[in-house]
């Protein structure tokens, strides 16, 4: 029973870890080695994955540990904001890395900005995911209604003179994540600016390649945070969509009521899982970029017959 | 293109002015091409921002640079003999040719045949 529950709570994270590790193993040979801030990168991204998984398990602790209802309510409610908080912390750690400054031959006359070493596809992916998060948050918030405490957490379906209701990712749950999106964006910009700011080294192509690698890591961490957050929203909406009730209509027999978007339940579940796995995979990939590339001399020695 | 300062070359602002002026008049910097910000160039050259600002101001006074709010400092349209597209294409060609070990004469032969 316990193992089954753990699997239900952690399968997305485990799938993301496997996916991230596979992607890194496939691309490892083509990627230049990350030299600056290896330990910080591994700790920031890897630690975020571990904490995320731990908090998922924590959400089920009421089954085993007695605590006030408010405590577990707060823990459960934090699941929406947690990926953004962990992503923010990881971005600050990545931006704080100060690589060793190689000798510079002078100043290049090309302007360097936060976008100089970031590929367009990363920027596009970040913007697209952000738009999806905002659209879903706005839609769910608009559909939410106040509960008995006056907090916008309810989704109701009117049935004659009565209503049928369930929880939804309403304004109460989305207020903090919406606020956190701003420092997440600011931290992403800051970390990318820190990478671009120092003068280029004398070995310009090598320095440029290193900066592209570090900028890609920053983008992966930010995108991972957005995808994980998107995953929690989609999963929550999937749960909301499953609201249904059967009522007696007297002489007319029984009838069922469900949400207008009940047909999307399966798709929302799948998309939520995909987003969560992808977000986790991006963080795992980032952590693994800190693993040193295999040395050439070792591979040559192994090729020589004894 | 690399800008480098030497201790024997006179005042840093004068050196920056002369080097950028030379790059513009020889077509290595094209019309409308954007230059780094005062802050970035000062940090790269390890000089005070005021030194770079002085050089930029004197280049603007000479009609070689134009500064607009929001679009930074750019080479004046009237100053450079070539557009930024031609200048960038020439730089790419020079880099590619050097990487393949070609001489200037080889590159000129290729250019003449493509003209």
Task: Describe what is shown at a glance.
The complex is a heterodimer of chains A (about 300) and B (about 120). Chain A is mainly alpha-helical.
Layout of helices and strands:
The complex is a heterodimer of chains A (306) and B (115).
Chain A: H1 2-27, H2 38-58, H3 69-77, H4 82-95, E1 107-108, H5 120-143, E2 145-146, E3 152-159, E4 162-167, H6 171-196, H7 204-241, E5 244-248, E6 254-258, H8 265-288, H9 296-303
Antiparallel strand pairs in A: 2-3, 3-4, 5-6
Chain B: E1 2-3, H1 12-25, H2 38-45, H3 49-61, E2 65-68, E3 72-75, H4 84-99, H5 104-114
Antiparallel strand pairs in B: 2-3
Helix pairs in contact in B: 1-3, 2-3
What is the CATH homologous superfamily assignment of the largest domain in chain B? Winged helix-like DNA-binding domain superfamily/Winged helix DNA-binding domain
Strand/helix succession of chain A? HHHHEHEEEHHEEHH
Main sheet overview of chain B: 2 strands, antiparallel
Percent in strands of chain A: 5-15%
Please, how many helices of chain A? 9
Poorly predicted runs of chain A are 297-306
Largest sheet strand order of chain B: 2-3
Number of domains of chain B: 2
* Derived structural class of chain A: mainly alpha
Dominant shape of chain A: elongated
Percent helix of chain B, as a range, is 40-55%
- Which oligomeric state applies? heterodimer
Distance between the termini of chain A: 53 Å
Q: What is the rounded distance between the termini of chain B?
A: 26 Å
Number of strand elements of chain A: 6
Q: Please summarize the sheet with the most strands of chain A.
A: 3 strands, antiparallel
Under CATH, the topology of the largest domain in chain B can be stated as Arc Repressor Mutant, subunit A
Radius of gyration of chain B: 16 Å
**What is the average per-residue confidence, as pLDDT of chain B, rounded to a whole number?**
88
Considering DSSP H and I runs of 4 or more, what fraction of the residues of chain A is helical?
55-70%
Biggest chain pair contact, residues each?
A-B, 13 and 18 residues
InterPro entries (chain B): Tscrpt_reg_HTH_GntR, WH-like_DNA-bd_sf, WH_DNA-bd_sf
GO molecular function, one term (chain B): DNA-binding transcription factor activity
Domain HTH gntR-type (chain B): 10-78
Keywords (chain B): DNA-binding, Transcription, Transcription regulation
